[in-house]
Amino acid sequence: MPLQVLLVTLVFLALPGSLLVQFGLVWVLLMTLAVACGAVAFALLAWWNSSFGLRDDHLVVHSGLLRRSSREIPLSRLQAVDVVRPLLMQVLGLAELRVELAGGDSSEIRLRYLSWGRAERLRAALLAHAAGLAGSTPKAPEWPFFRLPFGLLLGALAFRLPVLGSVVLFVLLIAAGGAVVSSTGLFEAGVLGGAVPLLLGLMRGFLGPLMRYTDFYSSLSPDGLRLRYGIFQARMQTVPPGRVQAVRIVEPLLWRAMGVVRVEANVAGYVGERQMDSSTLLPVVPRRIAYLLVRELFAGADVSRTALHPAAGGRARDGDLGVDEQLFVARRGRVCRVTEIVPHTRTQSIRMTAGPVSRRRGVATVEADTPPGPIRAHASGREIAEARRIVEGMAAFGHAARHSNAGPERWATRSEPPPSAR
């Protein structure tokens, strides 16, 4: 609400700005105050007239002040439940519940200004209904998985080529500007024009992730993978079993010496900007812990058992590819090594593509399509006959895997435990 009020106030000042100047400073301040108070009143009335509840296996949400709307959503479409607490809400003891549903950009539901306890209870009830259990089921227990030390986060974020390069350039620009001032007595504006973008880039690439992932803690629970992180916007993210469609393990060049990686994922339900914002499962983690998480997410799949084979001609840039009964694994990159992992049960389609140049070389690219996200699992430079065999084999593996495993819906009522349960 504070951001909405601020936005309305800024728009009021920006649009008729030239006309407001004629009234004088006092009247401008009074009108701005009136607009801000009106925006606060409207937001409070809209919040007061909003309601929600659980009806059988449906979440019912009523909202709107001037235009009343009602939504009734089957919880079988639930993809993820997040509890978000901006700094002001933390001070007031409030929280916002964000419910992600299958269905595109308009599928997110936000329940704002709930008490912290009520948000926790509602989150547990929604996850229980989605799992096929009674809404009164107690909150599922959890087992600690990984807590990110602040020193490791700080060192890993600083020990990256873009950050180190920006720091070096910034220092050189400041030194050059100082030399010009000392020799001529004049300030060189070009120094400021180069230093400011570098400083903004450092804030985005270093301070942003540092504030976001401070106090990062992950745990495993029968209702999914739980992630807690953030200072100025504390967030608790719960990804139910089966919603992680693909995993990517990223190893920047300098991180390999430290033995740490970043784990990202395509999570069903998140779309657009929300997908990119929620794709990081572990921001900095030892390599061993990353592969342990993959086994937890994908029902015991062991990436180390998947044999990787180089591309035709042994070209390093095309990377390696491995396929077995459970997984599609592609690894590539020298400066930044990337390992993409897709279980056959999550693959939506398999493609073999070859452009005119590739056909002349006799090679093709194999792609494993998953729901939208940052991961586009593929392996290039495969001989056409080999690529065709891989596609046919993956189709057979996928059919067998989906035939023997049910979908993620109502996982708690099935005889087998969810992938992330211990």
TrEMBL record:
It comes from the Bacteria. Keywords: Membrane, Transmembrane, Transmembrane helix. InterPro entries: UCP026631, YdbS-like_PH. The keyword Repeat does not apply. The keyword Transmembrane helix applies. Residues 352-377, 399-422 are annotated as: Disordered. Residues 47-125, 221-270, 324-391 form the YdbS-like PH domain. The chain crosses the membrane at residues 30-48, 157-180, 186-207. This is PH domain-containing protein.
